[in-house]
């Protein structure tokens, strides 16, 4: 019997730092992403979760792994961030973003819940944009608000199960997602860091540590936990 982490998007950025943190704490890790994460102690499931049918290819393998676990932590981390606006966001594009950022989490929960015992946890990765909006990120903002709703429903629907849940909401974190979104423009990155009270970007490891803490402390249940270094409000 062992402790298992099931994580989506563990191949890079915040996800990869989180995988390394759980491995260092004695967990076996099951990672879902399109590219492989080649680390000892990791079972890789290569899937494209933006496709509704991703579950069909791996459900037997996932169920079998989960059945052997003494306790399970699920971290819903994979997401995409596009530039779009309420004026031009294509409905099909919104559907695809919701599939990866929200619906895939529901699908994974439903695969794992029958095997999850008391002491297990379901941790969602939201964003500062889970509770506020900025212009030009309509599909992302919409999906990250939905993640909070899914987390709150998780807390209510699983009452009495001994499973706890949280939505950790990172601020600007130095990963491929952020750098690509900003066109790898160092001037913009510096300006963004200047908008944070601590004057710097967050390192992926800091979010990994927060996810670890949330997973190990059932007192934080049904809560939104912001981890953004403090953003300067205008
Ligand atoms: N970086 C930030 O500033 C920031 C701020 C707030 C919130 N967040 C949130 O933190 C989480 C991690 O972000 P990050 O910055 O670490 O992003 P990242 O570096 O872009 O990593 C995203 C991960 O998601 C996986 N992924 C993307 N599309 C996928 C798909 N179709 N199917 C399966 N996996 C897929 C990627 O793996 P493959 O490419 O191998 O599939 C990768 O492992 C996200 O939920 C993001 O919204 C980030």
TrEMBL record:
Cited InterPro entries: NAD(P)-bd_dom_sf (IPR036291), Sc_DH/Rdtase_CS (IPR020904), SDR_DHRS6-like (IPR051122), SDR_fam (IPR002347)
GO MF entry, a single one: oxidoreductase activity
Keyword Oxidoreductase: yes
Species per Swiss-Prot/TrEMBL record: Litorivivens lipolytica
Pfam families given in the database record: adh_short (PF00106)
The family this protein is said to belong to: Belongs to the short-chain dehydrogenases/reductases (SDR) family.
Name of the protein in question: NAD(P)-dependent dehydrogenase (Short-subunit alcohol dehydrogenase family)
Sorted UniProt keywords: Oxidoreductase
